[in-house]
Amino acid sequence: MRLSILDQAPISNGKTANEALAASIKLAQTGDDLGYTRYWIAEHHDLPGLACPAPDLILGMIGAQTSRIRIGAGAVLLPHYKPFNVAERYNMLATLFPNRIDLGIGRAPGGSAEASIALSGDFLKQVHQFSDSIDEVLRFLHNSFPKNHMYSKIKPSPVPTYSPEPWLLGTSEKSAILAAEKGLPYVYGHFMSDADGPSIVKQYTKKHSETIVTVSVICAETTDKANELALSSQLWSVQRAKGEGNGRIPSDEEAKSYSFSDEEKETIRKMERKMIIGDPKEVKQQLEQLQLLYQVDEFMLVTITHNYEARAKSYELIANEILADK
Fold it and tell me: Where in this chain does the record put each Luciferase-like domain (predicted)?
């Protein structure tokens, strides 16, 4: 089993965006040292609790401070951008950090409707053109426009020795079908979807095999400690759904003292069905169970806790349990 990291650059209550991004760089270094396959950082806009609207900018810093781990976006929200610009930026990263760059592609807005309008004007129009935009990105990366095409004379410079590896991210059967049609490796967001994930991934793997499943995981030395850590991210989700709080990850103390309603408790129970929470052996066991369900070789783990050190420790404990013998 291969393990990777998906980082959403969460900003904890009492912390600044600067501290959150510094913690993200440190997390990538931790993953590099521990044997994780990839470190990807997500793109979000106008969300006060998430610090990264521009993955390519921080990836430049992360690449310079790591040596082995593949790094990339999870994902570039393509409807906001021109394909040529995306190809230029990730070719630049691939030139700086040869054979280490992944280009995850997604179609979500990543923020409010107002932010989408500010970024790309008619976002829905761009979503409708998503399939064609993917084709353009791939042709720019592979320099494969027909000779009579208007773009055949331009290249997204610099042109690296090893092109960025493109992936398509999604949470639905539609995205899996699109990835298969494009011949792209696929990442399924188990932690974001209530759909029948194993069935969706099976549809994709009928034609292609390279698949990653992204899972929400919180690990600690004991199960009780892991559940305590998980409560802050669960409260954060509850508050966001209700439009309450300041958008940042509540502290463990705030989460413990919060009076959850019966409805909110049920919401948390539903969340926990999509999460893996426990000590290292429990986490390993549950990942192995998911592996049997999904029939994949790689999981990408997203971990959100108020305490950045506890988040890094979660990844360390899991690596020591699963990756130590590799």
Answer: 1-291
